[in-house]
Amino acid sequence: MKIIVTGSLAYDRIMNFPGKFADHILPEKIHQINLSFLVSNLKESFGGTAGNIAYNLSLLGLKPAIFGNVGAKDFILYEQWLKKNKIDISGVRILPGQHTASAYIITDQKDNQIAGFYPGAMAEPTANSKWQIANGKYTLAIVSPQNPKDMVLLPSLFKKKKIPYIFDPGQQMTSLSPNQLKQSINGSEVLIGNDYEISVISKRTNWSTEKIIKQTKLLVITKGEKGSEMITAQKTVKIPPAKPKNTSDPTGAGDAYRAGLIYGLLNKWPLEKTGRLAGLVSVYTVEKYGTQTHRFTRQELEKRFQANFKEKL
């Protein structure tokens, strides 16, 4: 089973602020904010939505193929990492004279985050001649945050090619018009986002939850430490959270969740089991600083699944 993973490939520069952002923001002065945070550490790691999802899919034993743009100036280390983890990068386009995208993320003690994102090569749409995808070659695709033009084009292409896709607008949801959001959600296999993102999507499209699930087969709402919720036209399933050993860094947890979701969907598992696995995969990255710094084996997954949910994986 081959999976198309579209989204960003980026270097993450992750910093920790040993305090709370809220203590430094004056509500009456938000019209003229001028803030500086002294951070306690800095770690550079491989990241981006496509990279993170593909990495976790690889740990789960699946075969992801990434499609996206990167810069020739600095991609070499990331390229070596992806190849080492047996991730297909034949659909990655390396643009000369460009930098790979970069994310600068500061996390406070309450796991709130302030981020800046430089798109680099991702500023150019991914769609190119490599998108002549053979029908039936791929089992599933995911459209995660990336160049907004691609987030409109790719769902249309996947529908044309009859490739089921997950639509994950995330941070780019406000870059898409209400009509573009509607077009991309309509006909998708899954719409996924956290509770805030889904609320914004609902407001911008003027679609209630009931209306959304008439446009997609499955609505997945992640709720952090409260678990997640999976909604179809027939039922709503509440998924309990898995318990992390620590909360070192929440960055990338959502991408790891998506990898677990894809695994369960491809194996045609019940929603209850699929959601539990997705939540469990996500805690591995929470326990490590960085987004692709964790590892797990099938045996470790089975043991922790049993410990968390009192049932066999």
Write the layout of secondary structure elements.
Elements: E1 2-6, E2 10-16, E3 41-47, H1 49-59, E4 63-71, H2 76-84, E5 88-95, E6 101-107, E7 113-118, E8 140-143, H3 148-160, E9 165-167, H4 178-185, E10 188-194, H5 195-205, H6 209-212, E11 216-222, E12 228-231, E13 236-239, H7 253-266, H8 271-286, H9 298-309
Parallel strand pairs: 1-4, 1-8, 2-6, 4-5, 8-9, 9-10, 10-11
Antiparallel strand pairs: 2-3, 6-7, 11-12, 12-13
Helix pairs in contact: 1-7, 3-4, 7-8, 8-9
What does this structure look like?
With 313 residues, the protein is of the alpha/beta class. The chain has one domain (2-25, 35-309): Ribokinase (UDP-N-acetylmuramoyl-L-alanine:D-glutamate ligase, 3-Layer(aba) Sandwich), CATH 3.40.1190. 31% of the residues lie in helices and 25% in strands. It has 9 helices and 13 strands. It has helices at 49-59, 76-84, 148-160, 178-185, 195-205, 209-212, 253-266, 271-286, 298-309; strands at 2-6, 10-16, 41-47, 63-71, 88-95, 101-107, 113-118, 140-143, 165-167, 188-194, 216-222, 228-231, 236-239. The strands form 2 sheets. The protein has a 9-stranded mixed β-sheet with strand order 5-4-1-8-9-10-11-12-13, with helices on both faces. Strands 3-2-6-7 form a 4-stranded mixed β-sheet. Strand 6 and strand 7 form a beta hairpin. Helix 1 (49-59) crosses helix 7 (253-266), helix 3 packs parallel to helix 4 (178-185) and helix 7 (253-266) packs antiparallel against helix 8 (271-286). The two termini are 20 Å apart.
